[in-house]
Amino acid sequence: MDRIIAQNTFERFWPAGRLVATTGQLLNAGLDTRIIGAGLQFGLIHRLRRGVYIPAHKWNGRRPWEQDKLVLAGHLAATHGQQVYSHFSAARLHKLHLWNSSRLIHVSAAYRSSPSRTSRDVALHFTALAPGDVVQRLIPGVGLASFTNLQRTVLECAMKATFEQAVVIGDSALHAGLALPDLEALMEASDGRRGIKRARYALAALNCLSESAGETRTRLIVAELPIEQPELQVSLGTSSGTYRVDFVWRGIRLILEFDGDTKYFDYQPTPEALIDERERENALIEEGWRFIRLKWKHLNNPELLKARIMKAYLTAQQAAA
Fold it and tell me: Which of 162, 196, 187, 287 is nearest to 237 (CA)?
């Protein structure tokens, strides 16, 4: 079959409104197994798992964490929303920030209702789930998903994750509206469970003012330094407008900024935002403020980053004396 013919066929018959589609949905839309095979051969579609596909242009070039969500969407489509997602999978469905988490799909089920077989990319957790422990949400282009509520998701992740992973997820949940009393009540009810001590330690470090995984990791690195801890998300007035900074030491006029893309893309085109930000930054520099700017790559070497922050802090402290 000609590639152009196959491409035109997929564009015409791909099920309307579907991000991912099962073999059955493609057949019902008017495609056949020969076309599906040609789509795979020509790289027009990507197989997420057996019998579940996504248009290649919606998969190729996506960042790894975006592809992780698509893999989960593929499992949801394959199981027709019949399973309850938990742990890191539920965190993805809650749209929380995750850091360094695998694509493993987490499903919770009671012993009596657990599936007899699971694939190698699925972790099955046996647990008792009350109706209030589970929420349902329609995932656009995929279908109806059932997953653990926000507080249970955060706690269960914290019971299995590393300290940094747990705090990243917990900070994101607080920013998304998680009520601390609900989380604390669930921790009390979970006393004695494996991993609860680890969870208590991580969840005691949460801060709702961290707005991204990068900011959380930066905050945890700074917390290990023998210096005054900075204020978070502070608005400073300048002659060019108000400038909202991630971390600030007011007394020594030092600002630390984590330059993650998300702070720009949600509000206005990147070039315009960067120009405005540079103008405000120049105004602050003219008023005697110093800057430390971090990118994702700097978080890969915490010890080097600590040394850099300490040097800037001591220099600013000396200048302010």
Answer: 287
pLDDT tens for 216-256 read: 999 999 999 999 999 999 999 887 778 889 999 999 999 99
Which strands make up the sheet holding 122-126, listed edge to edge? 122-126, 105-109, 84-85, 143-148, 134-139
- pLDDT, residue 147, reads 98
User: Rounded to two decimals, what is the model's pTM?
Assistant: 0.89
Sort 109 into a burial class: Cβ within 10 Å, 0-12 / 13-18 / 19+: middle
Strands of the sheet with 241-249, listed across from one edge: 231-238, 241-249, 254-258, 290-294
pLDDT at 274: 63
Contact 27, 49 (CB under 8 A): no
Q: At what angle do helices 302-320 and 213-223 cross, to 10 degrees?
A: 70
Distances (CA, A) of 236 to 181, 191, 200, 239, 245: 32, 43, 34, 10, 8
What does the pLDDT read at residue 238?
81
Neighbours of 309 (CB within 10 A): 22
CA distance 149 to 217: 25
pLDDT digits (tens, 9 = 90+) for 145-178: 999 999 999 999 999 999 999 999 999 999 999 9
